[in-house]
Specification:
This protein has 477 residues and is an all-alpha fold. The chain has a single domain (16-463), classed as Growth Hormone, Chain: A (Up-down Bundle). Helices cover 78% and strands 1% of the residues. It has helices spanning 3-8, 23-52, 54-58, 64-67, 71-99, 101-111, 113-123, 130-139, 142-157, 163-175, 177-192, 197-218, 229-235, 239-272, 277-288, 290-309, 311-337, 345-382, 389-427, 434-456; strands at residues 14-15, 221-222. A two-stranded parallel ribbon has the order 1-2. Helix 6 (101-111) packs antiparallel against helix 12 (197-218) and helix 14 (239-272) packs antiparallel against helix 15 (277-288).
Length: 477
């Protein structure tokens, strides 16, 4: 990147060479370019997350008497987009380098029209088969892919010293798409009752168009961006890559799984308390959006904290805190299991408090784990003294971009796991989610131990993920 480049970008949406570590060019205008791309990346990813989670809202508009789908069936409905979205993250990771970050953002936004129109169509046909609903829900998984392409693209725009905050802000702003669509659903239910899901779909048809237009007008393609199947295969040769993918199941998997399931869990409890289906939908919607909202807001702060004190430390302490948050759910569930009748107000408070804490902590963990990924490869690149500065930077960008997409895909599978475990817990003999809460608690224990063992136990500073803080030393070559 050079200073002349900065002056010509208002007329040219293609940047042939971008070096975010060039401090002089960054301060001369590169930061403004990166921030402009970040803003529109956030908006497009935000809409993608909304469409990905649209079925967590649609199930609130589906009383069993009308749609003939029980609670167990609804857990599968919200799990299906999570599964497809996880798979889509692999090709979406490669797309920005193949087609250009700006170009792919436009295309991926327009692809969201397909699941939105299909959802609008099928929700007006309550007599449609369960298979039809499952297929339409699966198509909503397209929205899950947007995260991978957006994060890979933004990772290439920012210097190492700012990646934690930038990636956290990009992901957090995108994650907010989950509570926003749930809030839209709440407003529709409050205004019209649970009989007009098409209003939600119509609102997002407009949002999709705005995202595509904004990306076309204000984003840029990076000519030297590299992220392909070869890079992904190479990144997976390192054991840390697999560990990071596993840890992301615990952070992002928790966020997206609970985001999709929280409203359904609340609705089940409100129905058990004597609410009508319409009342249960309204009461669940009034609470459900709060958790994903707080989890989204906390994500950039997790990245910023990791920039300051290290991603490994933040991630481990986050998992320890998640163990205690899951313990609140277990304790509340055990009291509920021993009580006759519907959950009491105190028990509902315990459920909501436990889930809200898990949302906030999962957001912090999301930010810290994604800071760890570029730090791992930056440290490895500095160990190659035979490489030039540009070669080290290019390799680090390529590896971290590829792993961001792969880890995002594996992490999203955690959301499928959460919904399946919850469904199994509800259809079991206990008829409650307590057994599922025990499973979540045990998994967080494993995640905390793995983080400590791999990234914090007797490791040199160079190999600790997320310990590269502040300006990087000038590399040799």
């Amino acid at each position: 990147m050079n200073l002349g480049l900065v002056k010509t970008l208002s007329r040219n949406r293609n940047i042939e060479h971008w070096d975010a570590e060039d401090v002089e060019a960054w301060e001369a205008g590169g930061a403004k370019i990166a921030n402009r791309n970040l803003i529109w990346s956030i908006f497009a990813e935000h809409v993608g997350f909304s469409i990905w989670s649209i079925w967590s809202v649609m199930v609130l508009f589906m009383p069993q008497a009308t749609y003939h789908i029980d609670a167990a069936g609804k857990f599968y409905l919200v799990a299906m987009p999570t599964l497809v979205g996880a798979v889509m993250r692999i090709p979406y990771t490669i797309a920005p380098a193949k087609f250009g970050g700006r170009n792919w953002t436009v295309v991926s936004a327009l692809l969201l029209l397909i699941p939105t129109v299909l959802t609008l169509w099928v929700m007006k046909r309550p007599d449609a088969s369960y298979t039809t609903f499952m297929i339409v829900a699966a198509v909503a998984g397209l929205g899950g892919g947007n995260f991978a392409s957006s994060m890979t693209n933004i990772n290439a725009f920012y210097p190492q010293r700012l990646k934690g905050w930038a990636l956290g802000l990009n992901a957090g702003g995108g994650n907010i798409g989950v509570p926003v669509i749930q809030l839209v659903g709440l407003l529709v239910i409050a205004a019209v009752s649970n009989t007009a899901p098409e209003i939600v779909c119509a609102i997002y048809l407009v949002a999709i168009a705005l995202a595509a237009i904004g990306a076309a007008l204000f984003m840029d393609n990076l000519g030297n961006q590299r992220s392909n199947i070869g890079a992904m295969a190479e990144s997976l040769r390192f054991s840390e890559s697999w560990v990071m993918s596993f840890l992301y199941i615990g952070t992002f998997g928790s966020f997206i799984g609970f985001s999709f399931a929280f409203g359904q869990v609340l609705q089940i409890n409100f129905l058990a308390g004597g609410d009508t289906p319409a009342q249960a939908a309204l009461h669940a919607a009034q609470i459900a959006f709060i958790g994903p909202l707080l989890g989204s807001i906390s994500r950039p702060y997790g990245g910023k904290l990791a920039d300051r004190i290290g991603g490994g430390k933040v991630t481990m302490y986050t998992f320890i805190a998640m163990i205690f948050a899951a313990g609140i759910l277990v304790a509340t569930g055990m009291i509920d299991d021993g009580a006759a009748g519907a959950p009491t107000g105190a028990q509902m408070t315990g459920y909501v408090a436990g889930f809200i804490l898990l949302f906030i902590l999962s957001g912090i963990g999301n930010g810290s784990t994604y800071k760890m990924i570029p730090s791992i490869f930056e440290a490895k690149a500095q160990g190659h003294d035979e490489w030039s500065r540009d070669e080290k930077a290019a390799w680090s960008r390529s590896m971290s971009g590829a792993l961001i997409g792969f880890a995002g895909a594996i992490g999203a599978l955690g959301g499928v796991f959460i919904n399946i475990v919850l469904r199994a817990s509800y259809v079991g003999e206990a008829k409650s989610a307590t057994n599922a809460f025990w499973v979540f608690l045990a998994f967080y224990v494993v995640c905390a131990i793995v983080t400590w063992a791999v990234f914090l136990r007797m490791r040199s500073p160079k190999t600790r993920a997320g310990e590269l803080v502040g300006p990087l030393p000038a590399p040799a070559g």
